[in-house]
Amino acid sequence: MAIFLNENSKVIVQGMTGSEGMKHTRRMLKAGTQIVGGVNPRKAGQKVDFDGQSLPVFASVQEAIAETGADTSVVFVPPAFCKAAVLEAVDAEIGTVIVITEGIPVHDSVVFWNYAESKGNKTRIVGPNCPGIASPGKSNAGITPADITDAGPIGLVSKSGTLTYQLMYELRDIGFSTSVGIGGDPVIGTTHIDCLKAFEADPETKAIVMIGEIGGDAEERAAEYIKAHVTKPVVGYIAGFTAPEGKTMGHAGAIISGSAGTAESKKEALEAAGVKVGKTPSETANLMREVIKGL
């Protein structure tokens, strides 16, 4: 099994005809993703060839759903137009919209997050500024490399794209059920807690890797959730142990206030919840190996 994305997921790409959309649509198709079309109002009715596979371009997400039964959208729309693209996907009630685009104004993210909530959260928003979702051997929606790991029993949720790839590669011989890159912006849709809940309910996920970073309190809140609701072993890594004090680092969400939001405070909160925390990605991978051996 997998969470949020599997071999039956029908994926559309908003912004498929742009340079990034074209490049990553081709890569997702090679990974076996069931892409059923793209959305671009200015090019509606056209077809785009991807190495012999022809995909239709629709005028809207609603039309794409009606014609193909699409349940997932990946957004490669430029930042200025992302708010409109996500609002359109929410109005169409697509099941999941994965927002890859970085540089989206926080106010825009607040608007589409609140709009989805006002509509009853019928659409799961992943991101923005994220690598997407990868369920190895089943489907890959986003920019996560498809050839760095196989399917297996580990679930992964991460704020960082590059650290996602590194942990997947280091644990490639064990493999992953699903990896979810949630993004590091101050306002995101799907959270660590949402993914922890889904992995806990997935019978084929046996252990979980959670990657966080300095700033905010998302990891502390996740620690509280783990303590109360998660029975599966969790291994964690917090990016930023070596960050200079008082210097803003990394993602827009990496804002430290006093002692809250530091790597050490997050590590302490997670360890208090029974999570083993590595000081480096490689140490974190080794901790997960020990966990898997003990299952």
From TrEMBL:
Keyword Ligase: yes
EC number: 6.2.1.5
Binding site for substrate: 165
SUPFAM superfamilies: NAD(P)-binding Rossmann-fold domains, Succinyl-CoA synthetase domains
Active site as annotated: 251 (tele-phosphohistidine intermediate)
Pathway recorded for this protein: Carbohydrate metabolism; tricarboxylic acid cycle; succinate from succinyl-CoA (ligase route): step 1/1
Catalysed reactions, semicolon-separated: succinate + ATP + CoA = succinyl-CoA + ADP + phosphate; GTP + succinate + CoA = succinyl-CoA + GDP + phosphate
Gene3D superfamilies tied to this protein: NAD(P)-binding Rossmann-like Domain, Succinyl-CoA synthetase domains
GO cellular component: cytosol; succinate-CoA ligase complex (ADP-forming)
Keyword DNA-binding in record: no
PANTHER family: SUCCINATE--COA LIGASE [ADP_GDP-FORMING] SUBUNIT ALPHA, MITOCHONDRIAL, SUCCINYL-COA LIGASE SUBUNIT ALPHA
Protein purpose: Succinyl-CoA synthetase functions in the citric acid cycle (TCA), coupling the hydrolysis of succinyl-CoA to the synthesis of either ATP or GTP and thus represents the only step of substrate-level phosphorylation in the TCA. The alpha subunit of the enzyme binds the substrates coenzyme A and phosphate, while succinate binding and nucleotide specificity is provided by the beta subunit.
Designated name of the protein: Succinate--CoA ligase [ADP-forming] subunit alpha
